[in-house]
Amino acid sequence: MKNTRILAAVTALSVTGAITAYRTETFTLANSEIYPGTTHEVILTLSDGYRPDSTALLYVGLDGILCRAPQVFDSLAAAGELRPVVGVYLQPGIIRDSVSGSVLRYNRSNEFDAITDRFAEFLDREVLPAVRKHGFADGTEVNWTDDAADHLIFGLSSGGIAAFNAAWHRPDMWGKVFIGCGTFVPMRGGEQLQVLVRKTEPKPLKIFLQDGFSDTWNPLFGSWYEANRMLASALEFAGYDCSFDWAEGGHSVRRATEIFPETVKWLYSAPVAPNPTGNDFLAPLLVSGQSWNEKTLTDRADEVKATADYPGGGLRVTVEPESNVLLQSIIDVDGSEKYTQPFYWLHSIDGRVLAKGGMTFDSGGNLWIVTSAGLQILDQNGRVRGIIVLPAGLDINSTNIRLTDGAIELNDGHHVFVRRLNTAPGIVRPNSQGQG
For the chain, which has fewer Cβ within 10 Å, the N-terminal or C-terminal residue? Predict the structure, then answer.
């Protein structure tokens, strides 16, 4: 891989005898609405030199303090290589018996391994607000910069996939990710991520991925190392600003600890610099620098139709209720439908039935459909080839889609979003793409 970098076994910056002037505070987060009944231990640290002026960097470490992170941050700050860091170290949730106090449920895999946006929302809506509210016992306020490029999240093993998913779902919150021995394997859908990365337009993330050649925590789920290499390949293909470390070793924090100082320097020190995506279906559609823009709502949206007719006629696509496939029918000369088959296969991140909005065909005969997993674009043979990230706040079930020459418009009756894309609506029958 062209971006692979094998770091030296001993990093350039040693933290032996490092300054440890950071401050620390511990509290328990209880009464979660997102993970009901759980309690989470949170350790809060402030680097030496911290000032409550909102210029500090933010670091979230999963499974508590790993890699001697607070000492590393103090050492880097003392060397003038890093601004002060607010460290938030989160333990996964547990549920205890109210009488005996024994643990009834360990929630770690449920929180960390799932590939939905639930954990990202937990960080956004509950953990970080609790940190700001709690502060320090002496009244010190806890603030950090609002720039996602100054926010780094780290996790090891299941914490690694959790860190990736938090940033994947909320790149507006997390711009930098460090993953050690991530569990991108078939436990709760982790194996799907490399597929979604390849098909989805690249997000503004800078990612470092580390694993050992012998990493297989449980062969029932496959090879951790192979899964990490598959994700790394997908990230490069999709154009992400990423770097990797492959070395001797197994499922351990040892290597991540060795390279932690240099890795966080690399992640924090430079802005996100993505490359063009290698997805040759998606790349021609995207217009560099263009994103969704909301415009004034002038007309109420029409009722969303659960069908779309192929340009030039002859075929019809219909939503199959309670399913993530779409039906395709041949339209007979009398207008009746025949030879109906489940034909278009949609991606669902959490395995549940997708919310679906409007759909339409473009001039190439590709089907565009608004779903809760993004704006999915399928070729003539029914396969998802590209996914465009939707703007936040849409009512998916009520969202209509309209393609124009050079743009796309989404209208849910409350919001209208427009984005420039290199596409055109389907009017005349397109050339065949063949059987593929």
Answer: C
Single out the residue of 43, 51, 57 nearest to residue 141, CA to CA: 51
- What residues have CB less than 8 Å from 139, skipping those under 6 apart? none
Parse the chain into domains and list their residue ranges.
Answer: 23-269, 293-420
Q: State pLDDT tens for residues 9-47.
A: 333 344 444 456 889 999 999 989 999 999 999 999 999
Give residues with Cβ within 8 angstroms of 262, minimum separation 6: 7, 11, 12, 13
Q: How far is CA 27 from CA 24, 87, 102, 140, in A?
A: 10, 13, 20, 15
Tokens of 113: 């391994």
Report d(CA 390, CA 90) in Å as an integer. Answer: 30
According to CATH, the superfamily of the domain at 23-269 is: Alpha/Beta hydrolase fold, catalytic domain (3.40.50.1820)
- Strand 94-96 with 57-62, pairing: unpaired
Asked if 116 and 349 count as a contact pair (C-beta separation under 8 A), the reply is yes
| Ramachandran angles phi, psi of 225, nearest 5° | -60, -45
Q: What is the pLDDT of residues 138-164, one digit of tens each?
A: 999 999 999 999 999 999 999 999 999
- As a whole number of angstroms, the distance between CA 52 and CA 393 comes to 32
Q: Class for domain 293-420, per CATH?
A: mainly beta
Q: What is the pLDDT of residues 238-259, one digit of tens each?
A: 999 999 999 999 999 999 999 9
pTM comes to 0.93
Distance between CA atoms of residues 412 and 392, nearest Å:
12
